[in-house]
Request: fold
Amino acid sequence: MKTAVYPGSFDPITNGHLDIIKRSAKIFDHVIVAVLVNPDKKGFFNIEERVFLIEKVINRIENVSVESFSGLLTDFMKKKNAQVIVKGLRAVSDFEYEFQMDLMNKKLCPKAETVFMMTSAKNSFLSSSAVRQVAMFNGCIKDLVPDQIITDVMKKARKYCKKS
Ligand code: PNS
Reply:
């Protein structure tokens, strides 16, 4: 059984993430979407909300599940008996950071293999931070995030703007 972990902040999940999830679900027996708990970073959505939004959009994909994790990704993988890390690559600018992480993860767990998937062209400009910005300025986020979570993101953006 090949289990892959797709790690990230997912604040919030975008159509780019969902595309990578769907494509990896066709390759691996089980894909775990792993949401990083980062105590140093106050997010837009909290961890429970991010997991909830991901659950909303993956609910029809049988071999995909979602969990949060803290600490090292390689430790989480060992716990889950996962062999593969899935990463999406958008542009050359992603490469250096991802290459560094790949080497570090290999050092920590030589058995773990990272598989990179190129983003689909239609999502190549997408990032969670761009989505947050568009939403906070009340722009249209259709086609940027899955339809099921548009209202959640816009609601959060309105609350966020009121607070700050
Ligand atoms: O969506 P992001 O924020 O680019 O995801 C980054 C993530 C979660 C993949 C990365 O920060 C990570 O794997 N963090 C866990 C800590 C870890 O294992 N660090 C060692 C590799 S540098």
Remarks:
- Residues 7 and 23 are 15 Å apart (CA to CA).
- The pocket of 4'-phosphopantetheine is lined by residues 7-9, 36, 72-73, 101, 104-105 (CB under 6 Å).
- The chain has a mean pLDDT of 96.
- The helical segments are 15-27, 47-58, 73-80, 92-108, 128-136, 150-163.
